[in-house]
Amino acid sequence: MHRWIWKLLEVTQEFTPAFAHHCLGACERQHRTLNERLTVHVLKEKSWETEIHSVTFSMNSSVNSSIDFSPFEIVFGKRPKFPVFGAHFNLNDIHPNMQKYFSDLKDRLNIIWEMIVQNAKVSGEKMEENANFKLNELKLSIGDYVYLQRTLTGQGRKFQPLYDGPFVVNIIPSPHLIKLRDLSGKRKLKSPVHINRLKLAHIRAPDPQNYLVQVPQQNPVSTSSDSDSESSQHEINTEQDIQLQNDNPTPLRRTSRVVQKPIRYRDENFLSEISSCDGAQEKIKRILAKKPHGSSFLYLVQLIGEPAQNAKWKPLSKLPPKAQELIIARPPPLV
């Protein structure tokens, strides 16, 4: 009976592989929305059996952004009446000619279905365009190093590595399927993998020391016959020396690190001329106040690394040039 109804309504059955939820996105999306909306009521200690009717009605009356119609309107050809409008029944709403009513309903549904097909096509093209714009196409060739994305299972999946490898591209049977080979030979990858599971691996040379050996420059070849024999013998000796250097390369010297002070301690303008007994110079942090001293002023100076209670009075001649400029630009308060 069900198969006869499906055939009458032109309903086709499509099969998808197991554990591939992305192949059935429309159905899985509906299940996710239904689960999210029922969770709110279950957390309020309500029975989901009583709330599922209102949730399904809200889902069927919501307009889909891709086709611009709600599921209720696609089936019945009109917008749903919500309980807010009232549940009264009027006999005048009954169509006098039911044959004309069904004919108009059929024409209205055909128009809605044609618009749905056009909107779905435009929405699909726009989605495909956005996906292709963000897609970083991976171009591989035989001999490239790649990482293989793993399928995480079991407990502690958040702490497991996402990729495994590196592997070497062995055969490319199609633009989407890649056959890999393990460098260590411990793992055999018989079936090819999809290119979406691969990521390019940048592998450095195993021993770059040989490439850093300085090659001695060869002397220019002279035009005379005597110099030709000498130069050829010199070239042979030079090639032997290079071969010996490649076999026994000289150890590379590591660069020594130059330790520098922070930038705030490199500014000598804030270093006062007064030195302590151990030879360390004093660095001024700020000028707190000034007071008259004869015909000039004394300035209360706080040093870096000292609290304000240990500030010292110093004349203007004992201050560095930058501190003197700061006094002229922003005079401290007079006490």
From TrEMBL:
<feature type="compositionally biased region" description="Polar residues">
    <location>
        <begin position="239"/>
        <end position="249"/>
    </location>
</feature>
<dbReference type="InterPro" id="IPR036397">
    <property type="entry name" value="RNaseH_sf"/>
</dbReference>
<dbReference type="GO" id="GO:0003676">
    <property type="term" value="F:nucleic acid binding"/>
</dbReference>
<protein>
    <recommendedName>
        <fullName>Integrase catalytic domain-containing protein</fullName>
    </recommendedName>
</protein>
<feature type="region of interest" description="Disordered">
    <location>
        <begin position="218"/>
        <end position="255"/>
    </location>
</feature>
<dbReference type="InterPro" id="IPR050951">
    <property type="entry name" value="Retrovirus_Pol_polyprotein"/>
</dbReference>
<dbReference type="InterPro" id="IPR012337">
    <property type="entry name" value="RNaseH-like_sf"/>
</dbReference>
